[in-house]
Amino acid sequence: MMPTITVVGRAEVAVVPDEANVGLSVHAIGATPADAYAQAGERARVLVSVLDELEISPASRSTSGIWVDEEPEPDGENRRPSEFRAGERLSVRVAPEAVEGLLEAAVARAEAQVQGPHWIVAPNNPARSEALGAAAANARARAEALAAGLGVRVGSVAEATEDWPSHAPYGASFAPIMNEMPVEGGQATVVGTVSVTFEVEPA
């Protein structure tokens, strides 16, 4: 059986994100669960109308949570009757250039709270293939360096495995404030990682 060596190759490619994922939530407080739920529903409908006016496709938005909870009473002497909080959270995917307008409209008109944005690199983005090819080249270079140290020579590839593709986004989280703020998509880093087993021969 031919002796082998196994190495891991890794490469990173910077790319402009294809999409942004923004979390938008609305809530309301009422004297009863039904009251809180109804008020939160009104704000949720305003938020949906904002998404409609911005022509964000229904396929690009999804409800990620609905809740009705009892508000805890304050400690000490400031006790009050029980109140209830209800709300809904939406996950919205938009083009990076649409994020700023979405945040401004959602906060100003629906009093939405914001989570994100989180930048997304599409699975078919060419940067993923570029990163994978660079990772394979890195694996061969590492194997040749290892082989030279061992006094052998790299031969044919016996096995190669791609690790799950990933990207490391650069983003920010925004609090629900009324002032306008710029939103910069920046760059994401697409990471390619491969495990390669090479046959080795006498030098």
What would you note in describing this structure?
The chain has 203 residues and is α+β, with helices and mostly antiparallel strands. It is 29% helix and 41% strand. The chain has 3 helices and 8 strands. The strands form 2 sheets. Strands 1, 6, 7 and 8 form a 4-stranded antiparallel beta sheet that branches. The chain has a 4-stranded antiparallel beta sheet with strand order 3-4-2-5. α1 (33-53) packs antiparallel against α2 (99-110). The two termini are 17 Å apart.
The number of domains: 2
Q: Which structural category do the helix and sheet elements fall into?
A: alpha+beta
**Which range does the strand content fall in?**
35-45%
- The helix count comes to 3
Which fold name is given in CATH as the topology of the largest domain? Translation Initiation Factor IF3
Form type: elongated
What's the average pLDDT?
86
Rg, rounded, reads 26 Å
| Helical residue percent band | 25-40%
Structure characteristics:
3 helices, alpha+beta, four-stranded antiparallel beta sheet, Alpha-Beta Plaits, Translation Initiation Factor IF3, 2 domains, 203 residues, elongated
How are the secondary structure elements laid out?
Elements: E1 4-15, E2 19-30, H1 33-53, E3 61-71, E4 83-94, H2 99-110, E5 113-120, H3 126-150, E6 152-162, E7 166-168, E8 188-202
Antiparallel strand pairs: 1-8, 2-4, 2-5, 3-4, 6-8, 7-8
Helix pairs in contact: 1-2
